[in-house]
Amino acid sequence: MMTMNRALYFRRRLTNYVFVGLSLAMALFGLVWLAFILGALLKNGISALSFSMFTEATPPPGSAGGLSNAIFGSVVMSLGAVLLGTPIGLFAGTYLAEYARFGKLAFVVRFVNDILLSAPSIVTGLFIYELVVTHMGHFSAIAGSLSLTVIVIPVVVRTTENMLLLVPNGLREAASALGAPRSMVIKLVTWKAAKAGIMTGVLLAVARISGETAPLLFTALNNSFMSTDITHPMASLPVVIFLYALSPYDDWHTLAWGGALLVTATVLTLSIIARLLEGKKRT
Amino acid sequence: MTARVQTARKAGAGDTRFRILTLLAALAVLGIFSGVILSLVIGAMPSFKAFGFGFITTEAWSPTRERFGALAPIYGTLVTSLIAMLIAVPVGIGIAIFLTDLCPRLLRRPIGIAIELLAGIPSIIYGIWGLFVFAPWFQLHVQEPISNAVGDSAFFGTLFGGATFGIGTFTAGLILSIMILPFISAVTRDVLETVPSVLKEASYGLGATSWEVMWKVCLPFCQTGVVGGAMLALGRALGETMAVTFVIGNAHKISPSLFAPGTSISATIANEFTEATSELYTSSLIELGLLLFVITFIVLACAQLMLRQMEKSKGKVT
């Protein structure tokens, strides 16, 4: 009897060690990939970084150049998407959290929004292509910006709603008791209380779209020259990285790595700032 | 008196206006969703008229002969996602278990953030890294040894045999698994934290090991949430575009070997859309997009429902 118990005890301990070890190994597995990717990115990207990358436009193969037009295009299109998407997302999130928390319509909107949040981004590109590009007759920065807007909105809606739900009801009731109409309660009290959280959502949305490639491929297309005309095709960093990385030219590969480092640095910095904002809110 | 009434009326009107504004924004979300479906359906019409349901079951894809079938891309999408799930689900859950219960408190935050960074890296970066760094390494150190080892064995020989290129269906699946890993571990961590501590304490009190507490108490408790998280990740994997486009090899055929190049729905669209010259070609690509949207919609809808149910039951049990 005693020996059997000891055997059982030993087996259970052993299983425990094995699985604890396995889960440690899995965490390491994840970390190794991160190191592998960031390492390769730094190794290939830093040597590609140069001052001319920010001042010169994308070159034809074999000559020197930079990514200035792509950087400009990315900034312009992302900015447009955020300026358009944030108010819509903010208002929709407000509707869900403040006006129709338990309504049927709110349920449907919430459901659809969460689907859009994870829907394939290439599909948004197709949608804007059908909606804008075919009607305009050509690719344009406007179309690119709109397809990014479609990605911004669900992110902002989700975070806005979540953050507003964290605002204690006592605040709303107190403001209402002072005679403030609902819109005033929202604008002056709950929005203010949730400000840091909502900002986080916007930053996360910017982080998300600054690396998006698929929706831009057939909306904004690409442009080898510096262009400020938003009704015409415009270059963007991710699309240039895509095209240059798949090209057969070595100097284009170098530029693609430089661009990749730039995009990753931007995205990760934004996510970290967002995280810090969120962390400040919590403590 | 009248002035005050006027102010009140004005405030009232502003109030209604604001309410309507938020309602319109909420409806805009629905509008975008139905717009996506509608535009894809309209865009896919010519192709649907030409090929009907045969579109889904035909493998041939020949722009020059205007014959389009979606079987190879559908196969590629499903197989790469399957490979990704087979790797990412156990690993993601393992990481979540490690971070909730086993990791020293001091390391919990840094490791958690590092894993989340994997989700922050844009998909194009996975693509360029996969093509230039990972694929050559994988070809030399993994594919060739495996391919040599399996040799002519009937099952594994077909699955892992053939020429090794570094890029291909398996590489795409592997990179996808790294990309969806943080989603699975994040959701699993969240739901694991909903397990009431009395449940854990009771089982520890009965002498259970940490593994037994995790496997027999915590995971069954939040089963629905974990499955929901996995479905969410699957939805991501199915629609992932850029990383797959770089490394899958873009061959419109179904190969029995996982190391052979293939294609996926999203990769086909990304590669060929701007080159599609005829209406039927464009329309076929849009129909592919519609198929992708429908598949991901079903998967994501299931994920939503499961996670919602988890949220609801959370209130009941505790």
Question: What would you say this structure looks like, in words?
Answer:
The model of chain A has no long low-confidence stretch (mean pLDDT 91). Chain A is built from 12 helices and no strands. Chain A is an all-alpha fold and 283 residues long. Chain B has one domain: MetI-like fold (Orthogonal Bundle), CATH 1.10.3720. Helix content of chain B is 79%, strand content 1%. A two-stranded antiparallel sheet of chain B has the order 1-2. In chain B, helix 3 (71-102) packs parallel to helix 7 and helix 7 packs antiparallel against helix 10 (223-239). Chain B starts with a helix and ends with a helix. The model of chain B has no long low-confidence stretch (mean pLDDT 90).
Q: What is the spatial order of strands in the main beta sheet of chain B?
A: 1-2
Helical amount among residues of chain B, as a percent range? over 70%
Low-confidence stretches of chain A: none
Q: Beta-strand percentage of chain A?
A: under 5%
Average pLDDT of chain A: 91
Instruction: Assign a percent range to the helix content of chain A.
Output: over 70%
Radius of gyration of chain B: 25 Å
Q: Please, how many domains of chain B?
A: 1
Oligomeric assembly:
heterodimer
Write the CATH fold name of chain B. MetI-like fold
Average of pLDDT of chain B: 90
What is the chain-wise order of helices and strands of chain A? HHHHHHHHHHHH
List the chains of the largest interface with their residue counts.
A-B, 90 and 89 residues
Query: How do the helices and strands follow one another from N- to C-terminus of chain B?
Result: HHEEHHHHHHHHHHH
CATH architecture of chain B: Orthogonal Bundle
Low-confidence stretches of chain B: none
Kindly name the structural category of chain A: mainly alpha
What general form of chain B does the structure show?
flat
Please report the distance between the alpha carbons of the first and last residues of chain B. 54 Å
Biggest pleated sheet of chain B: 2 strands, antiparallel
